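ingest -> validate -> predict -> emit
validate: passed (alphabet ok, no gaps, 252 aa)
predict: started
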Amino acid sequence: MGQETIVLLSHRELDKMRQAGRFAAELLQRLEPLVKPGVSTLELNDQVERWTQEYGAKSAPLGYHGFPKSICTSVNEVVCHGIPSAKQVLKDGDIINIDVTPIVNGYYGDTSKTFFVGQPSPTAKKLVEVTKECLSRGIAEVKPGARIGDIGAAIQEYAEAQGFSVVQDFVGHGVGRDFHTPPQVPHYGKRGKGLRLRPGMVFTIEPMINEGTWEVKVLADKWTAVTKDRKLSAQFEHTLAVTEEGVEILTL
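emit:
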C-alpha cells in the first residue's frame, strides 16, 4: 500500500478514538466475571449488546458483511470470527477469545482478549501467556520511522521460539472512522521491510498464535476460522496510535 492511502488522524480524531477504545476495554473488563462454565456464548453476546446500547454506541460486527452477532466468540480451536450461539456452552478448561468493536460517535474501538474458562490445561495456559507476550512485543516495536515488518518479526520470533506458530491468513489493520483500512499489519515478517510508521497512524495488532500448524480453515458458515489440525489457538488485540514519542495503546 502506498503511503498516500494511509489516513493520519488529527489530535481531535485521536481524542474520539480514545473514547471508543476506553469503552471497548470496559466491555471486556465487564465480561470477565461472566466467562465461566455453563454460560453460552450467546449470553455473552447479548450482554455486550445491552451494554453497548445503554452507552449509546453500536456494535460494529453486527451486520458487517452479513455477520449475524455483536461480538466474535472464538473457543479452543477457533482462530477468529466465531459466531455466538445458544448451543455453545462454555465448559471447564476451555479458552475463549472475545473480540469487541463498539462504534462510539462514529469511531471504532477494536480489542480482544483470550479468557480462561475454569482451570486451563498447562498447554492452554502457556499458549495464552505466549500470545499475550507476542502482542506486547509487537507493540514495543511501534514508533515513528519503524517499519511494519518489525512488528511481525518480533511476534514471529517469540512465538516460534516458544514452539508455537503464527496465523498468516488474518492480519492487523488500520482503524478509525472505518472498521478496516490500510495499512495491513501482518504478525510475521522481516525487520526493515514494509511501510514506514508515521505519527497519526492508527491500527490494530492482533496476533493469532496456534498450538500446532499455522494453517486455518474457514467453516461452511463462511465466518468461523479454525486451526487445520484442530489444536488450540489464542489471540489478543489492541488498537494503537503512532505518536511523536512512540506508541499509545487506545484500548486500555
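The first helix runs from residue 11 to 31.
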